[in-house]
Specification:
Number of strands: 0
Distance between the termini: 27 Å
Structural class: mainly alpha
Largest sheet: none
Number of helices: 2
Strand content: under 5%
Order of helices and strands: HH
Radius of gyration: 17 Å
Low-confidence stretches: none
Helix content: 40-55%
Oligomer: single chain
Amino acid sequence: MTENVPYCCAKGGVTYADAYDLSELAPHNITVNNIGPGAIDTPIDADVKAESKKISGPAG
C-alpha cells in the first residue's frame, strides 16, 4: 500500500494548489475549477480493492 503514497501526495497537492489559486484569484473575479475524480480501475489500486472486498462482508 505504501507505493500509493506518491500518487496520494500528488493528488492532494493539486487540490491544495487549486485552493491557493482560488484565494489569490477570487478577488479578481477569476473562477478556479478542480476536477478530482475518485477511484479509477487501474492496476495501482488492485490491492486496495482486494482488501476492501475482504473486509466488506456482513458484520458479525
